[in-house]
Amino acid sequence: MFPSIHISSLFLLFFLSFLFLKGNKEDSFETLPVSVGDVVPSTYAEMWEGFDPRKEPLDVEVLHQWEEGEVVLQVLRYRIGVFKGKRAMMAGIYGYPKGAKKIPGILQIHGGGQYADRNAPLTNAKRGYATLSIAWAGRISAPQYRVSPAEVKLFWEAKTSDPRYKLTTDWGALDAYHAPSRYGKDAFPSIPVEEWTLDPVKSPRNNAWFLVTLAARRGLTFLERQPEVDGSKLGVYGHSMGGKLTVATAGSDSRVKAAVPSCGGMSDRYTDDPLHLATVSDPSNLKNISCPIMFLSPANDFHGRINDLPTAIEEIKTDRWRVSCAPHHNHQDTAPYEVGTQIWFDQYLKGGSQVPAGPKIDVKLAKGKSPEVTIVVDDSRKISSIDVFYTQQGQVDGKKDNSSNTKNRFWHHSPVGQNKGKWVAKLPVHSVDLPLWVYANVSYELTNPIRGAGYYYGTYDAKSFTLSSLPALIKPDQLRSAKVSTILDSRLMIEDFQGEWQKEWFTYKPGQWGIKTHKVYDPVWKAPQGAKLFLEVQADQQNQMILALDGYATEVEIKGGGTWTSILLPCPVFKNVEGQTLDSWHGLKELQLDAKISLNPGRGSQAKSLKLGADWKGTAPAFRNLRWVTK
């Protein structure tokens, strides 16, 4: 006989046993079978074989919820999968307009060192999108729910009693964290074989690019299952490492109907590892992309290099593409370029206005003349400007990228005019022994301003947007064979501040007057031996102004009253954060004029950051006669 027991207690016992068994069954299920022996994925198709992003339950946990105006926001986690017997959970921030129905869904992917940030879902929701910003590295930035690297470490160490402890992304038995990685080894550039990798043999599924892409695909499943989302209208975008992950997600998942990678997704193609190249590299993903895609590729970016754009466009399987390339910018952009994300999604996810065709260029070479470029422009929208940029500091030898050159090469601006109904520009060069890179930008006015969250989540307001041509490369042997003229000689005058001089300078803060240029890096403006730097400045009030060169800076006193202050600076007046003087003009890369700056110590330095200058008083200054003086 059974011992006496109350019927409700018996029911509870059976119910708990059922839950226990159910939980064990789910956790015994493996999202991906472990590779053993010679059975290892060696191609892109084999890497993804057997993975169904819709198969497993999402197990969604809402960790924090709030509203901002008419926008609902949540910090949540969803199940990535089960690997080596342990669940992996992705944290993120989800936001959508209150009461929305059947709106497009967007997956936003942060870059290295960045956070999932509430400003992306918030600003997108105000434009009629539902957005999931995934925290693949564990970092989260939301009101009352911030997870910095310190909190990520608390999570790893399970210090639940610490008041700062918060649930965040849990990679379970694996490690796809970054900056820092949990086990101290970065699994993105390599294919490690460790206790914390999926396969005990070298396999592309041990690489973190693959794991985060898998998690992103699960994020698409989360989006398509939300009642307010139209699952047939999903987009993905991201910056830097998020740009590469955008390409990887779009290439591996047909549910993506539009993609916008920024500063990434086209340059991971120079590895010596054939397995990496065949599986998790940019080319392997680009060759599988058929959805509309727009590349945001600043011309001086170190991670998504403009030189690789033409090859990337050849690799994708769609003719629905655009590119937007800000001259002089490295890994940052301003509103006319960042807004490309919004106009692209508006067209392909909302059925909005068609984005104009990108400009096309044709470079002509003629004996005794400067190269000339013809630009074909789509004038279906109101054009605010047409610009041509070119440089002879590109790399064409096939060697590993020269990062310093990529980040600092100077792009000359050439005025564009009409000749026989065509837009044309001259390209004065200084050598026939160096390559020539050239591309065109066309800026269009927006009918209505667009507000969005930029690469680093700052809110921007765009009144125009810029489309670019693919860059064209003219090799030195072509220049020599054509016997083109070289009329761009060395010059002492760096800038006369006349005409469209701003086109050869740049800033990431258009609301402030501070400016930078790479002109001093170009051989045309190389400083002569023993030269001094001269500049005249006019201001309506007395101020301190900063001149900076590659981490060295000096403060100068500027007179007020609208008079011109003459500044003559020898090399040693420029000092770095450790008080060391600049001993030579040789190898200069960037010149900055500003009201205030911060000099930061390099790696291994014990020095503290040094702030120079102060808030500028009065109207922005005027400049003239920036030049090298040899007497």
Q: Would you mind describing this structure in some detail?
A:
The structure is a single chain. Strands 1-2-3-6-4-9-10-11-12 form a nine-stranded mixed sheet, with helices on both faces. Strands 15, 16, 19, 20 and 21 form a five-stranded antiparallel sheet that branches. Strands 13-14-18-17 form a four-stranded antiparallel sheet, with no helix packed on it. Helix 5 (208-224) packs across helix 6 (241-252). It starts with 6 loop residues before the first helix and ends with a strand. The model is unreliable at 1-26 (pLDDT under 50). The protein is globular and about 80 Å long. 19% of the residues lie in helices and 31% in strands. Strand 13 and strand 14 form a beta hairpin. Among the domains are: 20-104 and 113-206 and 220-230, no CATH class; 490-631, Sandwich (Jelly Rolls). The chain has 631 residues and is α+β, with helices and mostly antiparallel strands.
Specify the biggest β-sheet.
Answer: 9 strands, mixed
Helix fraction by DSSP (H/I, runs of at least 4): 10-25%
Number of strands: 31
Q: Stretches where pLDDT falls below 50 for ≥5 residues?
A: 1-26
Oligomer: single chain
Q: Please state the overall shape, judged from the principal axes of the Cα atoms.
A: globular
**Count of discrete alpha- or pi-helical segments spanning 4 or more residues:** 13
Mean pLDDT across all amino acids? 94
**N-end to C-end Cα span:** 112 Å
Strand order of the largest sheet: 1-2-3-6-4-9-10-11-12
Structural class: alpha+beta
What Rg, in angstroms, do the CA atoms define?
A: 28 Å
Beta-strand proportion: 25-35%
